[in-house]
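[Meeting: bench + compute handoff]

Bench side (C.D.) handed over the final construct sequence. Compute side (W.E.) agreed to return the predicted structure before the next meeting so the bench team could plan truncations. Sequence as handed over:
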Amino acid sequence: MTIRLIAVPILFLAAVMAHAGDSPQFRGPNRDGIFDEHGLLKQWPDNGPPVAWVAKGLGKGYSSASIANGKIYVPGMLDDQAGFIFVLNLDGVIERKIAYGKETLDDQAPGPRSTPTIDGDRLYLISGLGVVYCIDLAKGEKLWEVDILKRFSALNNRWNIAESPLVDGNRVICTPGGENALVVALDKMNGETVWTTKGLIDQQAYCSPTIVNHNGRRILLTETGKHVVGIDPDTGVLLWRHIHFTLHDIHAVTPIYSNGLVYFTGGYAAGGGALELSPDGSSVTLKWKDMNLDCEHHGVVLVDGYLYGTSHKTNQLICLEMATGTLMWKSKEVTQGVVVYADGMLYVYEGPKKGVVSLVKLAPTGFERTGAFTVTEGTDRHWAHPALANGRLYIRHGDALIAYDVTQK
């Protein structure tokens, strides 16, 4: 079911800027799992790439590392639900920790899940309990906090919030899922409400939003419990919605845009598909459906017209053609895991218990693995998304962050 709504023009561009080699937010500089790194290894030694360093004592959590301006930022939960931002230098030394507030004690995945967004000298984070924090990195203190569940009369979901905030111009965008606030924008300087999205009652669903450009028009894309949605990022007006059901209302994969198509997916055999945008971006129609790539929360990447991700149902790595949804190949040599891309290669971090990281050659013609190793440091489940920056692969595994040197020598 697709519903068309009226929209208004969109004017401004997103503000988060990344320097070469930085990864200042969830899934890389553009939030799409693609890292702008070059000169990386195309094949690993038998035991994997060399370990540059291991930092321990980061507490519980599944947030990824953000790397910006020569520092590394990792959220973690210590005793008494205390949440901290751990600040490391590029040699893996913990220089300080900044307290921000309480975190979730969820039995399955305690601790923070949100990856920090770095914007200049400020850091933005959403706790699993639904509080948005703004931290002054120079002073090492909170500037403001907003409980978005309380402010917008929303409920937390079954496994607590895992959204990473999106900074767009002077706004911080997130998804409380309130009756009149499906998605909201806060003033990034003081946390005041700028706009709310009305017209659709649905719960937030662990998904981190993104903003794309379609025929010169900016559109905010995200997924909620039962929908894929397009929103005007300057006003919060709901442009369109497309119903897509998954078990437990899990829609944790950020939609992907290319050439007028919006790709979406969900786990638990829900599959996915592609929506074709109207020329002005105010409506969508379903172009194709797919039941192979039912990615749960591990991310999908689009490179050179092909989608790569892992299936929840069949527990394998999948390649689809974006334009048609055609299955190009599937391989059980790599099971369900987080997929990211850099310099012609896929990096797949399998979880929740395996902890195997595979290097896979990017090719729509077939599967070829050129290296693998097992993460042995750290605690709890293998769920955090890897990051790449400055020639290093960063794997967060519970209380440890491991940096692997993946540069060609």
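W.E. noted at the follow-up: Residues 1-19 have pLDDT under 50 and may be disordered. C.D. will use this when planning the next construct.
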